[in-house]
Amino acid sequence: MEHTTLPLTHIADIRSDAAVEPGRLGHSAVLSSRGVRVVVLTFEAGFVLKKHSTPKILLMQALDGRLRVTAGGQVTDLAPGALLRLDAGLEHEVEALEESRLMLTLIG
Hints:
The chain is mostly beta strands. It has one domain: Jelly Rolls (Sandwich), CATH 2.60.120.10. The protein is built from no helices and ten strands. It has strands at residues 2-4, 26-33, 36-43, 48-52, 57-64, 67-71, 74-78, 83-86, 92-96, 100-107. The protein has a six-stranded mixed sheet, with no helix packed on it. A four-stranded antiparallel sheet has the order 4-9-6-7, with no helix packed on it. A hairpin with a 2-residue loop joins strand 6 (67-71) and strand 7.
């Protein structure tokens, strides 16, 4: 994980340490800096991350694959290029419709 207080941080490929591992949720902390943290989660097809919440604003971006996010009574499918923002404390569930990697940016 990159921890920085420098004015500029460059990570060439956030996917490089984020391999999908059968039977488990993969978790790779990519960046931690004042006010922001970036994590990549990896999912095998069919994996469900049960309902939970985070105390920070959350941005979700699919890096590859396809994911279904249920939050606030709404169902949203995420594919590469899509962005979803969740308020702090909003309960959500994530289902991998296929093998996927998800970038999470926690703000605050």
